């Protein structure tokens, strides 16, 4: 069926969110009928609305819907689909799913199952490409290594080392270990994350290259033996091994190195009999770009594929479809040119704390109350969002991608910063403001990148606190809500322009002529409450609020108790200090341990009555395949424990309370 020269009539998109919307866009352009699938949580999602046909495949948990091979194949049969596009994530790199599609008479829009299986096993992949002459990172050999064997291999390689799941990708489960004594705990944590993310806890260990650059090559292969590459993408701006910003081309490579890396990627693709669009990832020492090493091959469309599309002029989803339908590539390597520069930023649902907070970067959730996605010259937004979208911890935190293109890198960066400043997603915390600051960092502007830059420069990228004008704007909204909207008619019925009860005007007026300015107790989640007295002028409308402080005017988007500006957003809640004082430690006092994010409790290490030390790990909360360890804030005794493994928790929900030792309490 792969050799047919006829384009498909109907394609089922076995995914959700922004990538499903992206694939549907190309299917529509080609005149191909699209079928969306959805879980109960996604019934009203954008990808469902934009598809020609949509079909329910199960309840919200991915294992019962987007990861159910049986339900996806049944959906394809019921809707008359001839092919399945897996997008990325979920089953995109699952060889069993590719085989099941073929067995059901469906074309899997991706590489052969054998190529997926080979490159999905990082250990076999390294051995295969090494045999094809591609340089690989020094590391452990053999699969199924025990904890002791991994530890021995790490010590032999020499610290620091990188622990990696053999079956996974996307940075999940990867652990950088600099201290050999920490290996047992890090191996256990890496296995736990790998098992949760990929159903396989096999690990490998590799030498860690300090200040490396992450550069990947896009390859495209048809079913007739033609393999080409479409240049490189630089993906060095990362946090926790997760890509944040990608660009094409890389400022690091000269033409000779680009050609050599491209040829190595082509050989890697040939070594596994690849077909379709794929990406070969390399780690590159910044001081010597010619010394590049194969890391892995992603046997699917990449999240960052738009930057390659913009500099080559090719629609990669279209060519995935054409190759899967049996077409030959009508162009060769000599026909591929890179024009201009493109940069992409990943918009994720996550809380970016201020320095004095304790949240750090954690998955967030909520309902999108207000949405504005930029439409400006040289920009593109790939998004799965719409107003009313419910963002939960059930799925990956990436919501959208904002991409900018220009004739040169400086123009592309400038356009992307401006686009992020215009991006509004009130109701859900995102990293848009953080990304905008990252793209303005001098090292990024200069192209002096490496995979550790974000972590090193975190203090300069995260705000010191909540700006005063945010509280001023929140207070302005509350003052406006208190004001009488229409003057009343005089009580004597004489007319004359209306009358306003002075006691209903929130201007601080008191009997005796005294004016005492109104003050509001306000709280941004994760931070201490503040009492704010408005002192500037203000203008409030249904969706905006402007305040002027010290001669400077600040304008915010607003929705509910959310305020947004320049990509940043704040939820500013009312705070009742009297009620808070009555609830005590069990509702968030110094001894309380609260959920840092909405998610699921996966590990509980203590019981009521246990003595704990300051900093001791007590619970683990998982959301969007990210683990967060909850530790004791001080030494004491566990007096309350309100959760068990498997419990679903909301952000700020109390998990446990640590009371003082009896002697200290006495």
Can you walk through the features of this model?
This protein folds into five domains: 10-109, Rossmann fold (3-Layer(aba) Sandwich), CATH 3.40.50.20; 138-207, Dna Ligase, domain 1, CATH 3.30.1490.20; 213-461, 2-Layer Sandwich (D-amino Acid Aminotransferase, Chain A, domain 1), CATH 3.30.470; 466-482 and 518-575, 2-Layer Sandwich (Glycoprotein, Type 4 Pilin); 589-665, OB fold (Dihydrolipoamide Acetyltransferase, E2P) (Beta Barrel), CATH 2.40.50. It has 666 residues and is α+β, with helices and mostly antiparallel strands. Mean pLDDT is 90; it is low at 584-588. The chain is built from 19 helices and 38 strands. α4 (95-103) runs antiparallel to α5.
Strand order of the largest sheet: 13-12-9-10-11-14-21-19
Number of domains: 5
CATH architecture of the largest domain: 2-Layer Sandwich
Helicity level: 25-40%
Determine the number of helices (DSSP H or I, runs of at least 4 residues): 19
CATH superfamily of the largest domain: ATP-grasp fold, B domain
Task: Let me know the largest β-sheet.
Answer: 8 strands, antiparallel
Q: Would you state the CATH class of the largest domain?
A: Alpha Beta
- C-alpha Rg, in Å? 27 Å
Q: Could you give the count of β-strands?
A: 38
Backbone structural class: alpha+beta
Q: Kindly report how far apart the N and C termini lie.
A: 79 Å
Are there runs of 5+ residues with pLDDT below 50, and where?
A: 584-588
Overall pLDDT, averaged? 90
- Give me the CATH fold name of the largest domain: D-amino Acid Aminotransferase, Chain A, domain 1
Q: Strand content of the residues, in percent?
A: 25-35%
| Shape type | globular
